[in-house]
Write a structure and sequence with these properties.
Chain lengths: 119, 145
């Protein structure tokens, strides 16, 4: 992904629309998580930082490792004009740092939500 | 008169809490009232799309992931909960399956889109999504094991 496109994505506002769990609530309301993209690891992995810590069956955190859910989509779709990408979302139960690899992030986070990242 | 499209889907349902007494199918999902199965379960419609099921358990549309920004429907009638979880790469295992016929013509944003493998689950299942109201005719439901 070109640097300029990464900058565009990281400067835009996005939110997570949570479909699974269906009864999800956050401080911002039902089925929504507001936050910012803090790292585009690859076209298939984004780090999203929520504005608050969230709790999922004993796992808590405000960093989410997002992966595209469907085979025909990746996060390049967002910079190419699509207004959403369906995602699988993992909560990372620790502070994110730049040294964490994509593999580490996926292996050390817990799959907790299905939804979409949207502008 | 409604358009009827020849699409039969199964919607898997997740048990979410033993104390709840509703089935939530999304505020726009038009389900018929008074559906019954073996005289044990009665569904009563409401404007909010919340239907009383029984006092024992709570069930909800799964692949219909919330109605907030769209509904999802799998196309295959899966035979086991683990198969559903594997093929749709879901974080939770479903407990019930509902079969219904869609009785209108919603515009699908996802139309048979394949789920990627994820977290040691094989994926490969197809999903449909729409933001439109979905009319349905319930055909059947049964627990998934």
């Amino acid at each position: 992904m070109a640097t300029s496109k990464i900058i565009i994505m990281q400067s835009k506002k996005y939110f997570l629309s949570v479909g699974e769990p269906w009864d999800f609530d956050s401080p911002d309301g039902q089925n929504i998580i507001n936050g910012i993209i803090i790292k585009i690891v690859s076209a298939n992995c984004i780090i999203f930082k929520a504005n608050y810590i969230l709790h999922f069956n004993g796992v808590s955190g405000n960093f989410f490792v997002l992966c595209p859910r469907h085979s025909e989509n990746d996060f390049d779709d967002l910079k190419n004009g699509k207004d959403y990408v369906t995602i699988n979302g993992n909560v990372l139960p620790e502070e994110y740092n730049e040294n964490m690899s994509e593999d580490y992030l996926k292996e050390n986070s817990k799959f907790v939500i299905i939804g979409s990242i949207r502008t | 008169m409604r358009n009827i499209i020849p699409l039969l889907v199964s919607v898997c349902m997740w048990s979410v809490a033993v104390a709840q007494t509703t089935i939530t199918v999304g505020p726009q999902l038009d389900m018929p009232a008074n559906f019954s199965k073996a005289s044990k379960v009665g569904l009563g419609g409401s404007a909010e799309g919340v239907f009383n099921v029984s006092s024992a358990s709570a069930i909800r549309v799964s692949a219909g992931y919330s109605s907030f920004k769209g509904k999802f429907f799998p196309e295959v009638i899966y035979k086991s909960a683990s198969k559903v979880q594997q093929r749709l790469a879901l974080p939770n295992s479903p407990t019930l399956r509902v079969e219904f016929e869609i009785t209108n013509s919603p515009k699908f944003l996802l139309n048979g889109t394949k789920v990627k493998p994820a977290y040691n689950m094989m994926g490969g299942g197809s999903e449909f999504m729409t933001n439109d109201p979905v009319g349905v005719r319930l055909i059947n439901w049964q627990p998934l094991r």
